[in-house]
Amino acid sequence: MNDELLKFSKIFFNIILDLLIIIISILLILGLYSLYQTKINKKLYTNYFGYTLLNTETGSMEDTIKINDFVLVKLDAKYDENDIITYQTDNALVTHRLIEIRNEYLVTKGDNNNTIDEPIMKEQVLGRVVKILPRIGIYIKVVKEPIVLAPLCILIILVVLLLKDKEVKKNEKKE
Hints:
Strand order of the largest sheet: 1-2-7-3-4-5-6
Shape: elongated
Number of domains: 3
Order of helices and strands: HEEEEEEEHH
C-alpha cells in the first residue's frame, strides 16, 4: 500500500510539474510575442488570433467596466449602436459605448461621462468588446511588482529543483 501511494504521488507530482512547465512556457511565449508586437512593431495592442486583451485605466465606463478590469476585444468585429467598441485616437486606445452611427462617422460616449466624445471615423475602430474580465488588472499589477515577482520566480525554481532532486535521489536508491 505504501509503495502504491509513493508511486501515485510521484506520478502526480511529475504531472503537476509538467503542467507548470507547459503553462510557464506558454506565458513566456505570449509575453515575448506581446513585447515584439508593442515594442518592435510599435503597436498599441497585441493581436492574439483576432483578439486583443486590454486593461481599463480610467473610470469612464463605470459601472459597466471598472478601473483594472480587462476587456477582450474582437478585432475588426461588426458592431451596432449600443455596443462597446475600442478605437484608436492619436496614441491611445479608448473603449466607449457606440451611441450613434452617422454614415462614415461614429459617436461614442463613456457610460460614466456627461458628454459625448468627438466623432470618429469607422477606420479608427479596432473592434468590439466581447468579454469583460473583472479585476484581472489588479492581480497582474501585483504579480508584476518586483517585490512579488522575484520571490515568486525563486519559489518556482526552488520547487522544480527540489522535485527533480528528490526524483534523482529515489532513482539512485533503486539502483
